[in-house]
Amino acid sequence: MGEGQKFQLGTIGALTLSVVSSVSIVICNKALMSSLHFNFATTLTSWHLLVTFCSLHVALKMKLFEHKSFDRKAVIGFGILNGISIGLLNLSLGFNSVGFYQMTKLAIIPCTVLLETLFLGKRFSKKIQFSLGILLLGVGIATVTDLQLNVLGSVLSLLAVITTCVAQIMTNTIQKKFKVSSTQLLYQSCPYQSATLLISGPFLDKFLTNQNVFNFNYTTEVLVFIILSCLISCLWILIAMVGMILYSYYCTLESQQKAAEGAAQQSQVREAESDPLINVENASTGLTDNDIPKASVWRSNKDLHA
């Protein structure tokens, strides 16, 4: 299997895993909030991040990835900013309709491109610009026709978009500057994201739902769905790591096989060059393939006619 095919299989597997994990966690959270009336989204997200950090720590101890320390100020700022963006997105959902909230999330993509163009000097092709223009047109039409639009919800959505865009740009910048993978960055920033949401989550949830997360009736069914939701949120990380390990193993195995085949061919060439009998025979006779007499074909044909 070639490198291109392996890359395609890895991409397909990652996309499939992303879709499956996203759909699973949406179904689980929907049952938790709609059926069981556990409406503390920000607090639940902080638990997700906490479990994700614990899972990554276990993976680090198992040497599934390498720990790499870098600028702590950048990590803290990145983690806190990510936590704030999650909180603002939840507030945006609380003060806006679901349709407007989805439009807010779609607006993150073109806004990120705009910020990268203005402040980082990046240039994008006309095809990308045309696609983003259509996306912005759809967002604008949906925003104008939304009857539940309000000033506070719009301001919160704007802040959510800005913080999320800056967080995404910081992700790319930190990874390129310090040469760290997404897993290493997530492991470093998860504690600060989780801490930000653990502190602000109960207040935001109470502000949105008029309920206290600490006074909620935690039945066995609620606890089961909370645990399941947390496990699904970090399961994709573990599966992705296993996939990376298998991919690295097979790549290494294939490289070793190619190296062994190359070494065998080189050894055969060296043996042929160092064989004295072959050298003496070639030196004494000086014959080539063209000098060797060959059996005449016409005689056999003549015999057949006879």
From TrEMBL:
The keyword Nucleotide-binding does not apply. It holds the Pfam family TPT. It is found in: Membrane. The chain crosses the membrane at residues 12-32, 44-62, 74-93, 99-121, 128-145, 151-173, 224-250. Keywords: Membrane, Transmembrane, Transmembrane helix. Its main location: membrane. It comes from the Eukaryota. One of its GO terms (cellular component) is membrane. It is a multi-pass membrane protein. Residues 21-215 form the Sugar phosphate transporter domain. Coiled coil: none annotated. This is Nucleotide/sugar transporter family protein. It comes from Quillaja saponaria (Soap bark tree).
